[in-house]
Amino acid sequence: MHELLESLLTWIGANPKSAYLVVFSAALAESLAVVGMVVPGVMILFGAGALIAAGKIGFWPTAGAAVLGAVLGDGLSYWLGHRYGDRLRDCWPLNRYPRQLERGIAFFARYGGKSVAFGRFFGPGRAIIPLVAGMMQMRPSRFIVANLGSAAAWGPAYLAPGIVFGASLKLAAEAAARLAILLLILIGFIWLVAWLARRLYLLLSPHASAWVQALLHWANLHPVLGRTAQALADPDHPDAATLAALAVALIGASAVLGIAVSAEIAGPQELVINQMMLDLGQSLHTPLADQMMIALSRLGEPAVTVPLVVAVLVYLAANRQRRALLYWLAALGFPLLATPTLGWLVRVPRPEIGLGLGWPWSFPSAQVLTATVLYGFLALSVARTLEPGWRWLPYAAATVIIAAVTTARLYLGTEWLTDLVGTIALGLAWIAALGLAFHCHTRQPREDAGLMWITIIVATLAVTTATFAQQHSDLARYRPSEVWESLAAARWRARAPIPVATHREDLWRRDQRPFHIQYAGPLDHLRQALNAQGWRSAEMLSWTNAIKLLSPSLPLNALPVVPHVHDGHHDELTMVKDLSDGRRLVLRLWGAHCWIGGSVPLWVGDVTELFKDNVLDLFALPLTKPATEFGNRTLRHDLEEASTIDVEPGTPMLLAPKGSRLLEG
């Protein structure tokens, strides 16, 4: 993937005109009537903004292409509406989707000429508004003014989020390429999951009644097996869309569960897909990503779920929804019973990566099963209290949360992929069956957003509180155990092959950044020696000083240093030296998990040079140049001048405190 991205960026940098043509075409298509409803123009502009931040294409040519495409697209739509008028109502595809056209007409009738400007940013079906303006015979001069003015603002405004995101990715890639890749995967996956949840809900709704009737007809033909369906489904119930969706979910979840269980019998550790996903998750580890994923996993843990359960119980009791309260208890009792029972029956061991977790079984995942049942049933309950047009939203939110918890568990390496899929299927099967009965045997509540707001507020407070209270202990709990090696000093001194990293560990295990330095001894001793030669401890990038990155006028030596990552850990020693010519050198050292002579820790690292990258004079990013011999020579000279560190030139350069005798022999 990394090579593919590099090749794509290189090609775009060499062919910027092609990128401008794509932006122009996307803006044109996104602004055309009807066509704009299916063309992902916004996503293409977002990607173009990221390319601007990467320095592959220019801002003004890209913005100009977007504005020109938007002006022409809206102009063509206006001409079609002005030329053909109401006859367009009977033309495909507007005759298939009359609601979109009616909403556009209502929007234009309410705001008049201003709707052309407003509709470009908001409003129902922005690609429909220019067409409606033409159909309503808006004066061409007024339309041209509104079209040009709104397009001039629209182009840069839609590029801006991509520019910010691209700068963020650039900064993340400075720390570790794996962090940038993880952010791309996570954001893309969550967006896809939310989009699929909404589309599935909207797809099932029109066919709901027919499917429910078919289910009940099948129940009548099979009186023995059909009793369950008759008990769950009521043909007179008004919320047929939800009933049909739950029935489909039950059937699909049962099928997936059967496949997953078959995989468990074969042994999850033997499946190639399981091992691949475990390796991928472990290869993406960085300290920042660890904290983020532990926070997501916490959405399915007792620190968050218990306060949320209690709050919902109190709300239902206060509103005298006794039957809903009983269904809520039934939903929550399932993971409490299923997790230990299936765990001991199936007995699937967790991946062996040295995590200090008490429960030894991987299937079912307690966190994922709890999240599926808890947030799934909350989505059922909240959706009933909303207007029909918004009922998809709780389902999309629950799907995103379940996907986030599952992704976090996969990243942390706590369960196998097939176990997580089987757990979700198990939870969906229970929610589908329980939800059918819940909708049929409880009365439809009035429209009330109370339950939704209680869920949001309590979950947010619980996650925040648990993060502050448990983050340190959770980081230790989910960190794989480390194995330390012991090495004789003579072997290290002779540069014999040793079990120590010689290069920075990156995403695909490629040797991109070699370690030119090995130091055996306490870090404080080396720090003191370098302090005497003009080196100083670096100011590391944090939330408190990140605002400096928004000041492009600051010199390089005033910017914070981005922490780098090797093997999932930040550099443990980071020192900088600002040279008289404005250049800045950075020394970074990581623990090698190795003892020299049985008691002296070994550290590995390199010396690199920083440069300031200005992104459109909006952001100043301190980025790293490839390592050069100049940095190593400077470090060697300074340490020899300090006279407190023994230096053994070569590759790698060996360092040890003077008097330790580690380099003597």
From TrEMBL:
- Keywords of this protein's UniProt record, alphabetized? Cell membrane, Membrane, Transmembrane, Transmembrane helix
Domain LssY-like C-terminal, residue spans: 509-608
Leader peptide range in chain numbering: none
Q: What sequence ranges are listed for the domain VTT?
A: 39-160
Source superkingdom: Bacteria
**Which residue spans adopt a coiled-coil conformation according to this UniProt entry?**
none
Task: Give any Gene Ontology cellular component.
Answer: plasma membrane
- Broad class of where this protein is predominantly found: membrane
Report the membrane topology from the UniProt record: Multi-pass membrane protein
Subcellular location per the Swiss-Prot or TrEMBL entry: Cell membrane
Does Transmembrane helix appear among the keywords? yes
Q: Which residues cross the membrane?
A: 20-53, 59-80, 144-169, 175-197, 240-261, 299-318, 325-346, 358-380, 392-411, 417-438, 450-469
The family database entries (InterPro entries) matched by this protein are listed as:
DedA-like, LssY-like-C_dom, PAP2/HPO_sf, VTT_dom
Q: Does the keyword tRNA processing apply?
A: no
Q: Which Pfam families match?
A: LssY_C, VTT_dom
What protein family is recorded?
Answer: Belongs to the DedA family.
What is the name of this protein?
Membrane-associated protein
Protein source organism: Halochromatium glycolicum
Its ancestry begins with: Bacteria, Pseudomonadati, Pseudomonadota, Gammaproteobacteria, Chromatiales
